[in-house]
Design goal:
Helix content: 55-70%
Number of helices: 18
Strand content: under 5%
Strand order of the largest sheet: 1-2
Number of strands: 4
Shape: globular
Largest sheet: 2 strands, antiparallel
Structural class: mainly alpha
Distance between the termini: 66 Å
Order of helices and strands: HHHEHEHHHHHEEHHHHHHHHH
Radius of gyration: 24 Å
Length: 479
């Protein structure tokens, strides 16, 4: 039955400008598809964090070796007690609050800076969605989903020690200012990167650079400034921590792999036309995405096998994600064979990028920097190389080389902007003591310490009445 209610805002939408009703419906479905990847990101992070099975003590009460650089004279008496906890509840609440913060921030100023009427550098209209044409609501919803994705990358890299307040503030800052500026430069009709020299400019179909390099760069400066998790440092050396739930991590990874299909299909913005051309673009993007993901997963697991002789599940999942990230930039213009090559090389970029991050002494809890920054950078370059008929490997002419130059310039600008702004925000939060949870909370377990409840029934953190007589837990700069 048709609704008898009069809509709050009636608009006559010109199909030439806003698309048909089929286009609007298609974009809304893809927007919900992309928003659903928040579930996948949450599961990946929740599964990746490690479980702590006990709390260490100091002599004379036991002979356990304290695996941190504690000053025993300052620590005093820490009594051993049995413990098993996982910070899954903290992770899930962080995602819920992050989505809320991102929605508020992007609706308040993010969309306006991204696509409002303004200059070549930023939009300057439709703040608080005031004056936003209802015909653009589907477009707004899709880009809200993309904006929210950037904050999940930071969350996963800095898992296990970032405070809820810091995550909320960072989510608002990234989606209100940082991401919108890059979206305007690359995707707005008058953005300076998109316009380029008037004939050739920066090209990024679905966000390898605009979304993933932004999020990966912010994550990199974040983990650099806030330091590693305290239980990952043993005798001054960064050690591996095992994920507490492989099934949860795999489930999240598969949700994300499917979610990338909506990500790249929706970036076509339309699907309805008389010639069927838009349908071909969407189909090409879908085929490219799944083929590239497969190449990334295969390459990553093979390289890991040659490295330590095991077929690692986490390496496979991260390879799938790296392949999906890399092909975003050129999913609409590459042939399946090129998508496979892009994915295979993305798996290699992830593998060696992860090793580099560890060698630099950085603690990336979910390998998000290698997946998003590494594979995202490769994806932006790969579009210029493999684009059918006009890429460097096809055309071998001045125009294709110039387009590659614009994409390299775009990467440099995006990394500089994202790193500078996010670095400033992380530094201010750290300076005010807001970036990390307390040392006591981090070591005792965030679920029980901060929320008073456990994500798993029967698994909880309990502090005994005889806990400490005097206790001094060092900051991450001391471990």
């Amino acid at each position: 039955m048709a609704s008898q209610l009069v809509p709050v805002q009636q608009e006559i939408c010109d199909p030439a400008e806003f698309g048909t009703s089929i286009d609007q419906f298609f974009l809304m479905v893809c927007a919900q598809w992309v928003l659903g990847t928040q579930i996948g990101y949450a599961f990946v992070e929740a599964g990746s964090i490690s479980a702590k099975s006990k709390f260490w003590c100091s002599p004379p009460f036991c002979a356990e070796e304290v695996p941190y650089a504690f000053d025993e004279a300052a620590v005093g008496i820490i009594v051993w007690f049995a413990l098993h906890h996982v910070d899954v509840g903290h992770v899930l609440l962080k995602y819920l609050l992050g989505i809320i913060a991102s929605l508020i921030a992007y609706s308040s100023s993010g969309y306006a800076f991204s696509f409002g009427v303004g200059s070549a550098f930023f939009g300057a209209s439709e703040f608080l969605m005031l004056g936003l044409n209802a015909c653009n609501f589907a477009f707004y919803l899709f880009h809200l989903a993309l904006a929210a994705t950037t904050t999940t990358i930071i969350s996963r890299a800095a898992a296990g020690r970032t405070s809820l307040l810091a995550h909320v503030l960072l989510s608002m800052f990234i989606t209100a200012i940082v991401y919108p500026m890059t979206a305007h430069w690359a995707w707005s009709t008058n953005g300076w990167l998109k316009v380029g020299n008037g004939e050739i400019g920066f090209q990024d179909y679905a966000g390898s650079g605009v979304v993933h390099v932004v999020g990966g760069t912010c994550a990199l400066v974040g983990i650099l400034l806030i330091g590693p998790r305290r239980d990952r440092i043993r005798n001054g050396v960064l050690v591996d921590l095992q994920p507490h739930s492989i099934p949860l991590l795999v489930l999240g990874g598969l949700v994300l792999t499917v979610g990338f299909l909506g990500f790249n299909a929706g970036s076509a913005l339309r699907i309805d036309d008389e010639t069927g051309e838009q349908g071909v673009i969407v189909a090409t993007a879908l085929v490219s995405t799944i083929v590239s993901a497969a190449g990334g997963g295969l390459c990553s697991v093979v390289l890991h096998f040659f490295g330590d002789g095991t077929l690692n599940i986490v390496a496979c999942i991260n390879g799938l994600l790296a392949g999906s990230v890399a092909v975003c930039a050129g999913a609409d213009v590459v042939q399946p064979w090129a998508a496979l090559v892009i994915g295979i090389l993305a798996g290699a970029v992830f593998h060696f990028g992860r090793r580099l991050v560890v060698r630099l002494g950085l603690d990336d809890a979910c390998d998000a920097v290698a997946v998003h920054l590494g594979a995202g950078m490769w994806g932006v370059i790969a579009r210029s190389l493999f684009a059918e008929r006009v890429g460097v490997f096809h055309a071998w002419d001045k125009t294709s080389g110039l387009q590659l130059g614009w994409n390299v310039l775009g990467l440099i600008v995006i990394i500089a902007w994202s790193g500078g702004t996010a670095g400033t925000m992380f530094y201010l939060l750290k300076k005010k003591g807001l970036a990390r949870v307390s040392a006591e909370a981090e070591l005792a377990g965030l679920d029980g310490f901060e929320h008073g409840q456990s994500a798993y029934i029967g698994v909880e953190s309990k502090r005994l009445s005889l806990y400490t007589q005097s206790m001094s837990i060092p900051s991450h700069n001391q471990v």
